[in-house]
Amino acid sequence: MDRRAAAVAALESRLDYRFGDRELLERALTHASAGGGGPRVRAHNETLEFLGDRVLGLLAAETLFGLGPGWREGELTRRHVTLVSGAVCARVARGIDLGAALRLAGSTTSQGGRDNDRILGDAMEALIAAIYLDGGLEAARGVFHRAWSDELGAALGAEIREAKTALQEWALGKRLPTPHYLMLERSGPAHGPLFTVTVEVEGFAPARATGPSLRAAEKAAAAILLAREAAG
Predict the structure, then answer these.
(1) Least confident of 6-10, 68-72, 105-109, 113-117
(2) How large is the C-alpha radius of gyration of the chain?
(3) Which of helix, strand or coil describes residue 178?
(4) How far does the chain reach from its first CA to its final CA, in angstroms?
(5) If phi over 0 gives left and psi between -120 and 50 gives alpha, with beta otherwise, what is residue 136?
(6) Which of 49, 125, 134, 151 does the annotation list as catalytic?
(7) 53 labelled catalytic
(8) Looking at residues 72-92, what average pLDDT do you find?
(9) Strand order, beta sheet including 207-211
(10) Has residue 1 got a pLDDT over 70?
């Protein structure tokens, strides 16, 4: 397996999503600079960005609506703008090492294209669109909740800090057992570990999240499960 193929495989593993349509995945990962000319023209990701922007906007809106039903429209809008901004999309892309899997022209790569905010942000939108087209809205929703878990924490502030309590109260209100948290993985260096956890409530699909501490990951997972069930 060559270096880029390995990067694409690793990306799918981090997303916890395997594409059925490999050409669609390649299109999402191909920057316009790599389109080439003549017989080697490749489809690139610019039109997918257009769709991905809209899909991402919907997913962010439904998540915020579920977590903050009492928020005013202005507050929802402010948080929504944060979650779908180009800077946040670029940060999420770096978090899943999307840059390593991109197909870029050599000149674009040499100019730092794999770590360029605009290129990464646009590619992240294109990738969300490709997941939506390949697996449907539920697949895109799952990837959004996993990949944006840290950004949801930053955007929601105090609300996500209370998510574990809110989830427990929600479960009790439905006469269900206390939510169960399980650490799936600890990765990263000792000075900057990342924890991946899942939370389960009897009768509902589990939610997974990653955070810089076990407690932060648990809170993010609780918020994701609450948002998902409120939206559903």
Answers:
(1) 68-72
(2) 18
(3) coil
(4) 40
(5) left
(6) 125
(7) yes
(8) 89
(9) 180-187, 194-200, 207-211
(10) no
Distance CA 177, CA 175 (A): 7
Catalytic residue among 26, 49, 53, 159: 53
Question: Tokens 């703008």 appear where?
Answer: 81
Q: Which helix (H) or strand (E) holds 181?
A: strand 180-187
Tell the residue number behind the tokens 């942000």, with chain if given: 121
Tens digits of residue pLDDT in 95-132? 999 999 998 888 877 888 788 999 999 999 999 999 99
**Is 2 annotated in the active site?**
no
Element (H, E) at 208: strand 207-211
If 0-12 CB within 10 Å is exposed, 13-18 middle and 19+ buried, where does residue 105 land?
Answer: middle
Three-class DSSP category at 180: strand
Confidence of residue 180 (pLDDT cuts 50, 70, 90): very high
Residue 220 has which token pair? 């993010």
Q: Which H or E run includes 95?
A: helix 86-95
